[in-house]
Design goal:
It is globular and about 55 Å long. It has 270 residues and is of the alpha+beta class. The chain has a 7-stranded antiparallel β-sheet with strand order 1-9-6-11-5-3-2. A 3-stranded antiparallel β-sheet has the order 8-7-10, with no helix packed on it. Strands 4-12 form a two-stranded antiparallel ribbon. The protein is 25% helix and 21% strand. The chain has a single domain, classed as Jelly Rolls. The chain has 6 helices and 12 strands.
Length: 270
Amino acid sequence: MDQLVDLQKYPINTPGTPAYAALVADCRARLAADGMFDLPGFLRAGMVDEAVKAAVPLMEREGYRHARRHNIYFRDSVEGLSQDHPAMTKVETVNHTLCADQLAGNPVIELYEWQPFADFLAATMGKDAIYPMEDPMARVNVQASRDGEALNWHFDRSEFTTTILLQAPQEGGELEYRKDLRSADAPNFDGVAAVLRGEDPMVRRIALQPGALNVFRGVNTLHRVVPVKGPVERLVAIFAFFDRPGVVMTAKEQQGFYGRSIAGASAGSN
């Protein structure tokens, strides 16, 4: 795996060592302070190139274009929130997606299925364990944003969001986020509205480099990708982990996000 991940710089395969403990402690501290951490050069440059070369022509042929107007909750109604509240303002998202069942042989799949990767992520999150998603489509996605396109403001359904940037655009494509904007007990609808109006001074912007591992608290951190400009598309690998095994999308959710559904989806939701 040293050919895939820079294990000299990031010894995630050596739990119990001082170097591993120091890395985990640093990541935890950055999560607490900033709501995220990123590890530049985590995926080796050669593997980033390989992942991009495999994904780009496949994205052109088979990528699903997902375009929708939505509120940040991706729901028609939210308890305690009127339809005319500014937090329900609709935004537009446009992106292109390859699913896990289309990525056989891509290095991002090998990384996702390597147990020390999940164990390391769990340690940084302060959890005993996290589990790969069992959904054959949603477990790993490669997502592309092209000129004028973006993933707009939203909260994630999983507590933590794990990505690796594979290709940066010429302009745009930065991650904008507002950490800890809400909690399970305090939805902070007025704070959400302030972000959407561009009036929250605590919104941060980070420009990641290809190969960087990025982890943030997506469930309570409102975030978006700044619209891409230019002919080079932004490519990012998105890894789905949960604090329980057996998570899958419903067939309806698969259809909505990917334009198709396949065996493995259940009647239950994640």
